[in-house]
UniProtKB/TrEMBL annotation:
Gene Ontology MF term list: fatty acid amide hydrolase activity; N-acylsphingosine amidohydrolase activity
Compartments in which it is found: Lysosome; Secreted
A Pfam match: CBAH
Chain ranges of the Acid ceramidase N-terminal domain: 42-103
Signal peptide: 1-18
Chain ranges of the Choloylglycine hydrolase/NAAA C-terminal domain: 140-377
Catalysed reactions, semicolon-separated: an N-acylsphing-4-enine + H2O = sphing-4-enine + a fatty acid
Matching Gene3D superfamilies: Penicillin V Acylase, Chain A
This protein's name: Acid ceramidase
Native species: Parambassis ranga (Indian glassy fish)
Length: 392
């Protein structure tokens, strides 16, 4: 329900306060790769996170480097909070109550968040807020596809910042813009060996996009739902803590699961704080699925089935058996372009074309990540959506 309200409000807002002009959609893009031109803001830099270090020390190098961008981002969130609830009361609440929440988080997340607060000098409650944020406002597109040789390819656009303040002058979302400098690629190592890799936001300890090289690839999309939604997060803050944060689960699966099947069963069976979609790719033919989750259990698993002609699975933010909200149909254009590409021609290159086609690419898109499990490859690009462009 929250999503509907956001969308309608955002629609009214952008139609009345900007001279927003269609087209909302365009022909399927081609030859966008290697990334170039006005939809490509820049490359994403790599950092190593050493899992052999104590959790409080793991993020020191990255946060030292990204401190200014992180402080800017948190200031933007505070400005927005002040705009909604004047006189700083909301942030006061965050500074007082969220530090108490941090001690309820499981490790290593608790200590990692504390370490980030210490290195950045940002109050602990605000770092917690930043980490909760992504569990709440993420709209995305994720695709796992199998080419005609049985290679699995996984791509995603991460769209973030819906409703969090529209910059009328720049025709952009304030938070999405502030987030772009925080996009990083991370190489998590133990004993100097890569365990998994991810595209992340500096300061965030959960995972939305990642690869366990040669084994599986994983992305998470938000699922908006009446029965669940943000209630679980509220319950956690208020003291009832029997579910897992969604992006902590994805991180734990990337770190600890050693096969597609193991990842799939943990993602399907672990109790969560809020509903979610997990999009998982494996390393063998047929290993690609969308797991539609309620807080308690897996409601549905849609798998690649080449014999049935289903050579890819694609998820935005709506249950695949239902129509998407008419105001927010990124699924049909994305599927149209996938169908147009054909299984014979799918590759990281052509998947980037699909993810570069409006409105799959929109004003909320902060990054595009492409992963090829057989090569252990993860690459990501910071995106822009030049006008005219759909706000979401
Ligand atoms: C708007 O865009 C201008 C120029 O592109 C930039 O200097 C300015 O910082 C932007 N404002 C915000 C709030 O992002
Ligand atoms: C870690 O591995 C890299 C190459 O993969 C090597 O250059 C470096 O010396 C290794 N470091 C240690 C401490 O073993
Ligand atoms: C695929 O994953 C399995 C674990 O599920 C692993 O044993 C196997 O070596 C992997 N195959 C390749 C080609 O890496
Ligand atoms: C794409 O192809 C699939 C499988 O043939 C079909 O079910 C779906 O309706 C097509 N979608 C679009 C938007 O062309
Ligand atoms: C697949 O790619 C080849 C080479 O780029 C091209 O000639 C062919 O038309 C493409 N097929 C489809 C169905 O797009």
């Amino acid at each position: 329900m929250g999503h509907w309200v956001f969308l309608i409000f955002a629609a009214l807002f952008s139609f009345t306060s900007t001279q927003f002009i269609p087209p909302y959609t365009e022909e399927c893009r081609t030859d966008m790769y290697p990334p170039n031109g006005p939809t490509f803001r820049g490359a994403v830099s790599w950092y190593t996170v050493d899992l052999d270090l104590p959790p409080t020390k793991r993020w020191t190098a990255l946060i030292t480097n990204k401190k200014t961008d992180l402080v800017n981002m948190i200031q933007a969130i505070k400005d927005l909070a002040d705009a909604f609830v004047p006189s700083g009361r909301l942030i006061e609440l965050v500074d007082i109550s969220l530090p108490l929440v941090v001690d309820t988080l499981p490790n290593p997340f608790k200590d990692e968040i504390k370490g980030i607060a210490e290195v950045s000098g940002i109050p602990l409650g605000e770092v917690v807020l930043f980490n909760i944020f992504y569990e709440v406002f993420t709209v995305c597109t994720s695709i796992v596809a199998e080419d005609d040789k049985g290679n699995l390819i996984h791509g995603r656009n991460l769209d973030f910042g819906l409703f969090l303040g529209w910059d009328v002058k720049n025709k952009s979302w304030i938070i999405s813009e502030k987030l772009k400098p925080l996009v990083v690629n991370l190489d998590f190592k133990r004993s100097n060996q890569t365990i998994f890799k991810s595209t992340n936001f500096a300061g965030y300890v959960g995972m939305l996009t990642g690869i366990k090289p040669h084994i599986f690839t994983l992305t998470m999309n938000e699922r908006f739902s009446l029965n669940g939604g943000y209630i679980g997060i509220l319950e956690w803050i208020l003291g009832q803590r029997d579910g897992m944060w969604m992006s902590f689960l994805t991180r734990s699966v990337l770190e600890n699961a050693n096969s597609y099947e193991e990842a799939k069963s943990r993602l399907a069976q672990t109790k969560l704080l809020a509903p979610a979609y997990f999009i998982l790719g494996g390393n063998r033919t047929g290993q690609g699925c969308i797991i539609t989750r309620s807080r308690l259990l897996s409601i549905d698993v849609l798998e690649i089935d080449v014999k049935l002609g289903r050579w890819y699975v694609l998820e935005t933010n709506y249950d695949h058996w239902k129509e998407p909200l008419f105001l927010d149909d990124r699924r049909t254009p994305a599927m149209k372009c996938m169908n147009h590409t054909t299984q014979t021609n799918i590759s990281l290159k052509t998947m980037y074309d699909v993810l570069s086609t409006k409105p799959v690419l929109n004003k909320l898109t902060t990054y595009t990540t492409l992963m090829q499990v057989s090569e252990g490859r993860l690459e990501s690009y910071i995106r822009d959506c030049p006008n005219p462009c759909m706000p979401w």
